């Protein structure tokens, strides 16, 4: 080993889902199958490209204002970043500095472990129960902070607001982050609790419900005190996180509430129909409240199924990790994309017409 190797910060990186460049039925990274709001296209077409010679607004003013308006909070209660991954990473850096371990579920978004290791934050995973539910009592012990997604990923399970509140209430000496990447497909948001608990941060994204994964926009909403700490950390790291194009498009996406809600309805309808179809094929799955379904089949090996689908250009997500070896995560696509998936599955299980 070279001498300098000893002082290199080495990390085991997060592995994102594949982005196949060929034509594929892409149900593997929970993207939205519908385009962003029409205003985004119009804004991009009429964009003043001369403006790109200048740095963007470091405070992301117009986008922060639009989000504050949408969520009925002050502009000093909103922090934006380059996708919620950037926002969450900034939260880890800013708020998780205890010698005590940060708590998160054992089956959850795998990025949490990566950031904890990157920033040398001690952590302890709390086992979800046999039905993949959070066990709230496990979060009552002393810790250095708490983070969990609601709905959880990849289990798709939504915890009712009273469960979320119970965890926040039992952890008022540390920061609790609720990662609500999928909340719009689910139910009540922890945003209702931000005035009640000064240790709460809610993080959301434009990547799923707002159809803008490619634009990279995420945000945190909390009280002005915690948002100030986040901004101080951001300005010590990279002042110009959101580029000019993202700022303009982000505003347009938030403005069009009607389009947003229509898109949610379509995905939720397709999800509920897809649950029925999966059930007919003998799959078992959790009660998904997100834009993906976490499914297993008692008679078919998940890895074999995953490989067979991939060979046909149908991409879903499979990890093969502990406790979820037999599960795959299927993003809810358009009705047409899901039909392709089901036609393939019926053939694979010798229950239907040949798939080609
Ligand atoms: C998708 C996802 C994110 C990150 O989304 P961004 O594209 O970075 O905004 C964060 N948390 C969870 C649980 C997710 O599934």
Profile the largest sheet.
5 strands, mixed
Mean pLDDT: 96
Bound molecules: pyridoxal-5'-phosphate
- Looking at the structure, the CATH topology of the largest domain is Aspartate Aminotransferase, domain 2
Q: Count the beta strands.
A: 13
Q: What best-fitting shape do the alpha-carbon axes yield?
A: globular
Q: Report the span from N to C terminus.
A: 52 Å
The share of residues in helices is 25-40%
Uncertain residue segments:
none
Radius of gyration: 21 Å
Number of helices: 10
The named CATH superfamily of the largest domain: Type I PLP-dependent aspartate aminotransferase-like (Major domain)
Question: Could you describe the 3D structure shown?
Answer:
- The protein has helices at residues 38-45, 61-71, 83-95, 111-118, 161-169, 224-235, 244-255, 257-280, 302-311, 335-348, and strands at 25-26, 78-81, 102-105, 123-126, 146-149, 176-179, 200-205, 218-221, 284-285, 292-296, 314-315, 317-318, 328-331.
- It is an alpha/beta fold and 356 residues long.
- It is built from ten helices and 13 strands.
- The termini are far apart.
- A five-stranded mixed beta sheet has the order 2-8-7-6-5, sandwiched between helices.
- The chain is globular.
- α1 runs antiparallel to α7.
- The protein folds into two domains: 3-30 and 258-351, Alpha-Beta Complex (Aspartate Aminotransferase, domain 1); 38-255, Type I PLP-dependent aspartate aminotransferase-like (Major domain) (Aspartate Aminotransferase, domain 2), CATH 3.40.640.10.
- The mean pLDDT is 96.
């Amino acid at each position: 080993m070279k001498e300098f190797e000893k002082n290199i910060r080495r990390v085991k990186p997060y592995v994102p889902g594949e982005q196949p460049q060929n034509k594929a039925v892409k149900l593997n990274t929970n993207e939205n199958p519908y385009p962003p709001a029409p205003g985004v296209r119009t804004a991009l077409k009429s964009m003043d490209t001369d403006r790109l010679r200048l740095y963007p607004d470091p405070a992301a003013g117009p986008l922060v204002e639009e989000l504050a308006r949408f969520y009925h909070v002050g502009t000093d209660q909103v922090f934006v970043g380059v996708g919620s991954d950037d926002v969450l990473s900034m939260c880890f850096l800013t708020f998780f500095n205890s010698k005590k371990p940060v708590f998160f579920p054992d089956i959850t978004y795998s990025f949490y472990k990566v950031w904890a290791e990157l920033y040398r934050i001690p952590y302890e995973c709390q086992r979800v129960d046999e039905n993949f539910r959070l066990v709230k009592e496990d979060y009552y012990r002393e810790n250095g902070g708490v983070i969990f997604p609601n709905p959880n990923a990849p289990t798709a399970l939504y915890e009712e607001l009273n469960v979320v509140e119970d965890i926040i209430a039992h952890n008022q000496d540390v920061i609790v982050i609720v990662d609500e990447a999928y909340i719009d497909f689910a139910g009540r948001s922890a945003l209702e609790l931000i005035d009640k608990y000064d240790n709460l941060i809610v993080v959301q994204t434009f990547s799923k419900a707002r159809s803008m994964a490619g634009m990279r926009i995420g945000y945190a909403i909390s009280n002005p005190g915690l948002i100030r700490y986040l901004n101080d950390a951001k300005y010590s790291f990279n002042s110009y996180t959101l580029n000019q194009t993202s700022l303009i498009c982000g505003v347009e996406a938030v403005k069009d509430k009607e389009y947003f809600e229509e898109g949610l309805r379509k995905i939720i309808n397709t999800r509920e129909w897809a649950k029925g179809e999966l059930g007919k094929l003998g799959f078992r799955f959790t009660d998904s409240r997100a834009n993906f379904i976490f499914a297993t089949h008692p008679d078919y090996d998940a890895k074999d199924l995953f490989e067979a689908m991939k060979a046909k250009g149908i991409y879903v997500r499979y990890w093969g990790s502990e406790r979820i070896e037999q599960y795959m995560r299927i993003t809810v696509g358009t009705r047409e994309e899901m039909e392709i998936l089901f036609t393939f599955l019926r053939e694979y299980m010798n229950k239907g017409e040949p798939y080609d």
